[in-house]
Specification:
431 residues; alpha/beta; Aspartate Aminotransferase, domain 1; Aspartate Aminotransferase, domain 2; 8-stranded mixed sheet; 3-stranded antiparallel sheet; 14 helices; 13 strands; 13% strand; binds pyridoxal-5'-phosphate
Length: 431
């Protein structure tokens, strides 16, 4: 995302002009309040219409032999998941099936488990345990970013360091500078395709530089590569993400890449299949930890998904149907931003994923969220896209167009636009 501008006003205005603008906006805002809206743009969830696309899951086991396919799906065991499910995950993540574990319903659980295991037991065995290396581990957090990543590292006691998300991906100059000078930095959170919330995809150069981090930071550094939006394209000419695992192999740093994905936003949110991919050494150590917690994943659900999705072509066909529902919503939100906020805020134009990131006038994001709520439109809390909920510029707001209907977007976006403008003009008045 572009650097936050210091002043988003289009022109310098006199006190009288500002007062007139404030009065006009305040009266528009009051009129919107009278509509008694009750709308929500916070939810990065698939809409019911999208979930309906996977209702075929219900019938995907009709007549199926649950005991075929390499393991009896009805019974205990198979810690790595069904072979066919692992192949599906391998296609999603662009790796080899042998590098994949197919798990339960949430990739976030894998991420939490991986980091906990690395801290307690070591990413590659007890002698590599992070707790032996430092009393105060640190983690790089790309901002704006995904709040649940930050909650994981916060809950495990990591100190989180912000690194700016640029249009090309994380600010790699800053990442390299930080890891070179601080061995307590144990990893970095990345959402490489259609990043949450900017929607940007990491460039080839960024991926190559990330692959080199293992040589700079040491063998126990980990890139948490959360490819949650790997196939969530809105258009037919998607950006192509360079293969991190291959780049790491070329650099001799394959242990540094730990990859995640799930079918949460392909089939059912929180009721799909999660995947984790990593080097043989990482997986061997992780399995020991995983095997303490479970005898094996829900293989019946995995089989249901394999029968329903079949392969990567089946996934892509389904994702085109998702895109047909999502694209008009993204475009509608963008058309309101273009019409109402040009020169007054900055926003991204994602080609996929689930979010649009808006930078409003610095120092006003919290006020924008408060004003919008006052007119019945709930927005993601300002600061949520930063570790500890603290946006140093108080500027970033994440919009989630997926769950609202087009009609709801048409009602909610004028409120957002007026809230952004009103908060900005009031701030300029009080400067
Ligand atoms: C970047 C990212 N990762 C992971 C998730 C959640 O994935 P899962 O449902 O597999 O835990 C989300 C959900 O919004 C997300 O945006």
């Amino acid at each position: 995302m572009c650097a936050v501008p210091t002043d988003l006003s289009t022109s310098t205005s006199s006190d009288t002009d500002l007062a007139a603008e404030e009065r006009a906006l305040a009266s528009e805002y009051a009129a919107l309040q009278e509509r008694g809206l009750k709308l929500d743009l916070t939810r990065g969830k698939p809409s019911p219409e999208q979930l309906d696309l996977s209702n075929g899951l219900e019938k995907a086991l009709d007549g199926a032999d649950l005991a075929s396919g390499g393991a009896d799906a009805r019974n205990y065991g198979g810690l790595d998941g069904l072979p066919a499910a692992r192949r599906l995950g391998a296609d999603l993540l662009g790796v080899d099936a042998a590098e994949v574990i197919a798990g339960g319903n949430a990739s976030l659980t894998f991420m939490y488990q991986y980091l906990l295991n690395a801290w307690l037991n070591g990413p590659l065995g007890p002698e590599t345990a992070w707790r032996r290396e430092t009393a105060q581990p640190r983690f790089l957090c790309v901002v704006p970013g995904y709040d649940r990543h930050f909650t994981i590292t916060e809950s495990l006691g990591f100190e989180m360091l912000n690194v700016r998300m640029l249009d090309s991906g994380p600010d790699m100059d800053e990442v390299e500078r930080l890891v070179a000078g601080d061995s307590s930095i144990k990893g970095i959170w990345c959402v490489p395709k259609y990043q949450n919330p900017t929607g940007h995809t990491f460039t080839d150069d960024t991926v190559r530089r990330l692959a080199r981090l293992g040589s700079i930071a040491g063998p126990n550094f980990r890139i948490m590569w959360d490819n949650a939006y790997a196939v969530h394209d809105l258009y037919d000419d998607p950006p192509v993400l360079l293969d991190l695992m291959e780049c790491c192999r070329a650099e001799g740093t394959a242990d540094s890449a730990v990859m995640f994905a799930s079918t949460s936003k392909i089939t059912r949110a929180g009721a799909g299949v999660a995947f984790m991919a990593a080097s043989p050494g990482n997986l061997a150590q992780f399995r020991k930890h995983l095997g303490v917690q479970t005898i094996g994943p829900d293989k019946v659900n995995q089989l249901r998904h394999v029968n329903f999705l079949r392969d990567i072509d089946g996934i892509r066909a389904l994702m085109r149907r998702h895109a047909a529902i999502m694209r008009p919503k993204f475009e509608r939100v963008l058309s309101f931003l273009d019409a109402g906020l040009a020169g007054r805020a900055q926003w991204t134009r994602p080609r996929g994923g689930y979010f649009i990131s808006v930078d409003v006038a610095p120092g006003t994001a919290r006020e924008v969220v408060r004003l919008a709520a006052g007119a019945g439109v709930k927005l993601t809390p300002a600061g949520a896209t930063f570790p500890y909920g603290r946006d140093p510029d108080d500027a970033n707001i994440r919009l989630a167009p997926s769950y609202a209907t087009l009609d709801e977007i048409d009602q909610a976006m004028p409120v957002f636009v007026i809230a952004v403008r009103l908060a900005a003009v009031r701030r300029r008045q009080h400067r």
